[in-house]
């Protein structure tokens, strides 16, 4: 592994976990309705309508590997 900035091969790899928590307040979503339709048929549409204006908390986490140059501190 070579740093693209300075060309040093003194690079360490590190696995990091990113967690994104987003709180959204939104109205009736078309996508949600479609999903509701697929999963529950007509009741899904009703659930989508019932969820109007409610606050939704969504947690999304993913792990990725980053490389850190020990020479210049570049992360890539
Ligand atoms: Zn570097």
Salient structural properties:
alpha+beta; 39% strand; binds zinc ion
Bound molecules: zinc ion
User: Could you tell me how far the N terminus lies from the C terminus, measured between alpha carbons in angstroms?
Assistant: 11 Å
Helix residue percentage:
25-40%
Label the structural class: alpha+beta
Q: What percent of residues are in strands?
A: 35-45%
Residue runs with pLDDT of under 50 for 5 or more positions: none
How many helices?
2
Element pattern in H and E: EHHE
Round the Cα radius of gyration to an integer and report it: 22 Å
The main sheet orders its strands as: 1-2
Shape verdict: elongated
As for the number of domains, it is 1
Mean pLDDT comes to 81
Explain how this protein is built.
26% of the residues lie in helices and 39% in strands. The protein has 76 residues and is an alpha+beta fold. It has one domain. It has a two-stranded antiparallel sheet. α1 packs antiparallel against α2 (42-50). It is elongated, with a radius of gyration of 22 Å. The relative contact order is 0.36. The model has no long low-confidence stretch (mean pLDDT 81). It binds zinc ion (ZN). Zinc ion (ZN) binds at residues 3, 5-6, 8, 69, 71-72, 74.
How would you summarize what this structure contains?
This protein is α+β, with helices and mostly antiparallel strands and 76 residues long.
Give the secondary structure arrangement, pairings included.
Elements: E1 11-25, H1 30-40, H2 42-50, E2 55-69
Zinc ion (ZN) binds near residues 6, 8, 71 and 72.
